[in-house]
Design a protein that fits this description.
The complex is a heterodimer. Chain A is mainly alpha-helical. Chain A has twelve helices and two strands; from the N terminus they run H-H-E-E-H-H-H-H-H-H-H-H-H-H. Chain B is globular and about 75 Å long. Classes of the chains: A mainly alpha, B mainly alpha. Chains A and B meet through helix 1, helix 3, helix 4, helix 5 and helix 6 of A and helix 1, helix 3, helix 4, helix 5 and helix 6 of B.
């Protein structure tokens, strides 16, 4: 009897996901049906009755650009930090590790507030003009760094996202670095390798696919982050070369236009179609990252990937 | 992977190798430093700027009119956050714990694997997706934004958090305890409720605290479902304010006095969320010491 109750609640969790997906897909269906592939390739967004046009390309663009900036900035730092936490012992490690975990607990609206009033003015005044006058002069890639340093922009949103995904990328990288067998490190050191050489030759080759997995998990977090980005990015549907101009991401656009869409069928459907895109990308990234991280574990222990799941999961977060 | 390293006596490493090793060590420490900077800066700014906002009015008044915004407070946000997160906790704790009991005590084979996978999938769902889901399912259908809808959106996020965390705790309970009770003829369900769950009690409390901390700070799903409100509201079927919503809204106005209220709200959020996370850690480390 009691077993039945708990089973029913567990089944409820399955039902919840099914209902969520069904609700989003049914809601977004009108948009996919009417605009087809044009929804993904269109640039116009006009909810005015009779002249409706819904194209998601500027939001897909903004999401990819801010997330790419975030990953480019966060992953090297996260990997370095994870390697350091694996090296040091004693009094440095525990506080350092828990500081990083604290970063993960800060609510996104606090990041947004700080980003808006502290980080954005700092980047606008000091970093962005400097980047424009240095790497901005490089012939082709320099176009990324030219533009108006003032006001909201994609780059600032990317920096805030980098800070926000740092803890999760660090945590997952730490996990994969920790499973590299000690014997390999010791072997390399015994041959006279320096610390750098032992890490490069004994740790990184093992951890590589796990680090890629950690990156994907971070990317998934960055894609879905709403409030902090929404406060900084400007929410302007725009596609352009410069990182120093405003833009909009899928979540930030949903958050800034749901009010007007609540009572208008097609507009609402278009926002739900955006959510469908977001959810599919996030799921695919999460699944890929799990596979890659698990591959690292099985590389080391020699288990088959399928067997790990039915075993008692090890305690992580 | 074979290491090809020239063997050199200690202290006579070729200069290039030693330099590379030093540069790499410096890089690792630079990473640690870079990771610390934002945490320190965010805490310093939130505390120093939020501090000024704290006053009796801040906790007891609703927002004042545009003539003197600094005379107002955000009392309606505290009431709303309590209402929304309270309801969400009420919904998600029993659901999460029952799911965890199923997974740890009864679940076998393919179905349990599927449930676990789905909990993971829901954990990796961007939080705004939960907001869009409830917005379409509840807000549009009921014709109004409401605290209840917000609580449901948070439940979508908190249920899998509690389920996964509590399952891991339940699995740590020694098998001998279950066997001992079963051998005495106690039925399975009573063993779970009277022996297993109480033994894991502190750990389950940790899981709940972490889920509540998450619920307190979430903004996007509440924005799409509770909308916000300038007045104290205790009716679960009406639009309701919450602290993160107020911070979000006040920060985007051009009024300096409201920015100050936003920093005050952020300080309260930070204290509550970090306090809960740290307390959760303390409880779980004590529990682990007791069980080993």
């Amino acid at each position: 009897m009691f077993a039945g109750w708990t089973g029913a609640v567990a089944l409820g969790l399955v039902g919840l996901l099914a209902l969520l997906l069904a609700e989003l897909i049914v809601g977004g269906w009108r948009t996919f049906d009417r605009f087809g592939l044009g929804f993904f390739l269109g640039r116009a967004w006009n909810p005015v009755r009779g002249r409706e046009a819904f194209g998601a390309l500027p939001f897909i663009f903004g999401t990819l650009v801010t997330s790419a900036v975030a990953v480019a900035l966060a992953v090297p730092v996260a990997v370095g930090l994870a390697l350091l936490l694996n090296e040091v012992r004693g009094f440095v490690r525990a506080p350092l590790a828990s500081f990083v975990d604290v970063l993960a607990a800060i609510p996104s609206v606090v990041y947004g507030l700080w980003g808006l009033f502290v980080l954005k003015p700092f980047l606008d005044r000091h970093i962005e003009p400097f980047m424009t006058s240095t790497i901005g002069t490089v012939p082709v890639a320099g176009a990324l760094f030219r533009g108006n340093p003032n006001g909201p922009d994609l780059f600032t949103a990317g920096v805030i996202l980098a800070i926000m995904i740092l803890p999760i990328v660090t945590a997952v990288t730490r996990e994969v670095v920790a499973v590299v067998p000690r014997e390999l490190r010791e072997g390399a050191l015994a041959l006279g390798a320096t610390r750098y050489e032992s890490i490069r030759m004994a740790v990184l080759p093992y951890a590589r696919s796990g680090i890629v997995g950690a990156t994907m998990l971070g990317l998934g977090r960055a894609l879905g982050e709403t409030i902090a980005v929404s406060m900084i990015v400007g929410n302007v549907p725009r596609i352009g070369a410069s990182l120093f101009e405003p833009g909009a991401t899928i979540p930030s656009w949903i958050a800034s236009s749901f009010r007007e869409a609540t009572s208008v069928g097609l507009h609402r459907s278009a926002l739900m179609a955006l959510a469908v895109v977001l959810v599919i990308v996030a799921f695919v990234l999460a699944a890929l990252s799990r596979l890659l991280v698990r591959r690292t574990a099985s590389l080391v222990s020699g288990e088959t990937p399928g067997a790990a799941e039915t075993e008692i999961p090890k305690v992580t977060r | 992977m074979i290491a090809t390293v020239e063997i050199a006596p200690m202290g006579r490493l070729r200069a290039g190798r030693r330099w590379k090793d030093r540069a790499f060590t410096a890089f690792l420490w630079a990473c640690a430093f870079l990771a610390m900077v934002p945490l320190v800066l965010i805490s310093v700014y939130v505390v120093s700027r939020g501090w000024h906002a704290l006053s009796v009015n801040f906790f007891t008044k609703e927002p004042a009119g545009p003539l003197d915004p600094s005379a107002g407070g955000i009392a309606q946000s505290f009431v709303g956050t309590g209402l929304i997160v309270g309801m969400a906790t009420l919904f998600s704790v029993p659901l999460g714990i029952l799911t965890a009991i199923y997974l740890a005590e009864y679940g076998r084979g393919r179905f349990a694997g599927a449930v676990r996978l789905i909990a993971e999938v829901l954990l990796s769902t961007p939080s705004i997706v939960a907001g869009v889901f409830i917005w379409s399912l509840v807000v549009v259908a009921m014709g109004t934004f409401s605290a209840l809808a917000a609580a449901l959106a948070l439940t979508v996020l908190m249920w899998p958090v509690i389920a996964r965390a509590a399952e891991e705790i339940l699995r740590l309970v020694p098998q001998e305890l279950r066997e001992g009770a079963l051998a005495l003829g106690v039925p399975r369900w009573r063993v779970i409720l009277r022996v297993v769950v109480p033994t894991a009690g502190a750990g389950i409390l940790t899981a709940i605290m972490l889920a509540v901390a998450r619920g307190l700070g979430e903004t996007a799903p509440i924005l799409l479902t509770a909308l916000g409100n300038d007045f104290i509201n205790t009716n679960p079927l009406q639009p309701t304010d919450a602290v993160p919503l107020r911070v979000f809204a006040d920060a985007r106005t051009p009024v300096a006095a409201l920015h100050e209220l936003a920093w005050g709200g952020a300080l309260m959020l930070l204290v509550a969320v970090l306090g809960l996370s740290i307390a959760a850690r303390a409880v779980s480390s004590r529990q682990q010491k007791r069980m080993t």
